[in-house]
Design a protein that fits this description.
The structure is a single chain. The chain has 2 helices and 23 strands. It is mostly beta strands. It has a single domain, classed as Neuraminidase (6 Propeller), CATH 2.120.10. It is globular.
Length: 285
């Protein structure tokens, strides 16, 4: 009887195993502050086409200043590089942003939480001037499980959203490549985030998958969680395995997180005016 119990415990522990170890990172260092024009930086993503460029946006909390604009900023100073207006699009409540593949190029993806819509535009070939980016596609979805502040796109073009809930261990939904261009897409629950945070905040706030699809960061109010992706399966990794570690988080009010273009270092930003842009550099091994 005791042997049978031990076997059950071992199976359960292995099911919730940890995949590898988390790399070590330095504490966050501010590289500069964002332009006052970016007053509610709710998401962050690294360009896969332009080295040293990050994308961010304002959320839609201020109804008098809502605009469908993506801001290109410098990863080394936080300074504003260009305003990229998405057309046609609206900003009811943009909450997160990601960069990932779309066809033979790379696209910027933006989640509008209130409209249950994800917009997609191709990354521009030249990013150092204000311009209008024509909408490449969008998906209007039905999501019965609360709202989501988190949008991630993997290296195969699958988009993921995670419902917000106190403690952060809630439902994960996936948008498939074939869903683009459709309305009324029913997003099914594909798993539950294997995190039970002690925070009383509605989490997670943001997340990102590295460009090679091998690493995941999930941002809570109180900490960051890291996973190594197993067999290219983001859903199984997040739902069935413990985080491999807790990288540093300089500002516990952070709202956006992203890997850099190479997946070596990561950035965070807060949803305040003149927000500092923090970089966390990976320790060499």
């Amino acid at each position: 009887m005791q042997s049978w119990i031990v076997q059950i415990i071992v199976i359960f522990v292995n099911h919730r195993s940890t995949l590898g170890e988390a790399p070590a990172f330095s504490n966050g260092v501010s590289v500069g502050s964002l332009s006052p024009e970016i007053f509610h930086a709710s998401g962050l993503a690294a360009s896969q086409k332009h080295d040293g460029i990050l994308y961010t946006h304002n959320d839609g909390d201020d109804v008098n200043r809502r605009s469908p604009i993506i801001y290109a900023i410098s990863a080394t100073s936080g300074s504003l590089i260009a305003r990229l207006r998405v057309f046609p699009a609206t900003n009811e409540d943009w909450e997160d942003i990601a960069v990932g593949p779309c066809g033979n190029t790379t696209c910027i993806y933006v989640l509008d939480k209130s409209a249950n819509t994800i917009y997609r535009v191709q990354e521009p070939d030249f990013v150092y001037s204000d311009q209008i980016l024509s909408l490449d596609s969008k998906v209007e979805f039905i999501w019965h499980h609360h709202k989501s502040n988190t949008l991630m796109v993997d290296n195969k073009g699958f988009a993921y959203i995670i419902a917000i809930v106190k403690g952060g261990g809630d439902r994960i939904g996936r948008v498939n490549p074939g869903d683009w261009g459709h309305t009324g897409v029913n997003i099914e629950v594909r798993g539950h985030l294997n995190v039970h945070d002690d925070s009383d905040q509605d989490d997670p706030q943001s997340g990102d998958i590295s460009a090679d699809g091998q690493q995941i960061l999930i941002l809570m109010r109180s900490r960051v969680y890291f996973w190594n992706v197993r067999n290219g399966d983001v859903l199984t990794t997040l739902a069935d395995h413990n985080p491999a570690g807790h990288p540093p988080l300089r500002d516990h009010g952070s709202d956006g997180i992203c890997w850099d273009r190479t997946g070596q270092n990561y950035f965070t930003v807060n949803e305040i005016q003149n927000a500092p842009l923090y970089v966390y550099r990976r320790h060499s091994t």
